[in-house]
Amino acid sequence: MFSDILPEYLGANRFIDAKESLSGPLEPQHYKRFAEMATMEPGGTYGVAGSREPYGPRTVRGHVACSATVTCQRCLKPMSINLAGEIVWGLVFSEVEMQNLEKELDPILIDSGQLALRQAIEDELVLLLPIMPMHDECDSGWIPDSEPGDALKNESPFAVLAGLKNEKRP
Ligand SMILES: [Zn+2]
Q1: How far is the CA of 136 from the centre of ligand 1 (A)?
Q2: Could you tell me the distance, in angstroms and rounded to a whole number, from the CA of residue 35 to the centre of ligand 1?
Q3: Ranges 4-8, 51-55, 63-67, 165-169: which has the least confidence
Q4: What confidence category does residue 5 fall into, taking pLDDT thresholds of 50, 70 and 90?
Q5: Distance 128 CA to ligand 1 centre (A)
Q6: How far is the CA of 135 from the centre of ligand 1 (A)?
Q7: pLDDT by residue (tens digit) across 45-70?
């Protein structure tokens, strides 16, 4: 199935015991907290599947992926980024269970039997955001306030290139 609207809550035990799975598009308007940091583009996807080994932890595994626009922290212009992450959740129903959870699982606390799926997905997306997003190379050559006509007259791009070449000579 690839059309499931991501539900806000899931019955945790049923999802795990029945080994259910869900996948579909991420709806940008569902993620208000994410929207404070970045603009999610349409076309993002998620997939989650519940499972449990006998006597093992209840797990939800899957993925999230989307494109987003953030502000470059160097030139303050928008930049596009692709976010993709793996979901490896261990569902826990108490603080004690959380402490005993296997280290490779990210603990998700279940309240009243409900997995707050949308919130957990949003947490994953927020964690994927770079702390200091920056272009590899900011487009600093273009300064809108200057008068490019004058610059072109005085120095053609080829002259600049030639100059660079000369500088490299020992
Ligand atoms: Zn930049």
Answers
A1: 7
A2: 20
A3: 165-169
A4: confident
A5: 19
A6: 4
A7: 999 999 998 888 999 999 999 999 99
Centroid of ligand 1 to alpha carbon of 77 (angstroms): 6
pLDDT interval class at 102 (50, 70, 90): very high
What does the chain come to in residues?
Answer: 170
Torsion of Cα atoms, 108 then 114 then 116 then 121, to 10°? 60
Cα dihedral sign, 151-153-157-159:
negative
**Which tokens is 110 given?**
């279940």
Q: Per the confidence metrics, is the pTM higher than 0.90?
A: no
Question: Are the C-beta atoms of 51 and 19 separated by less than 8 Å?
Answer: yes
Interval between CA 133 and ligand 1 midpoint (Å):
8
Instruction: Find tokens 């004058």 and name the residue.
Output: 150
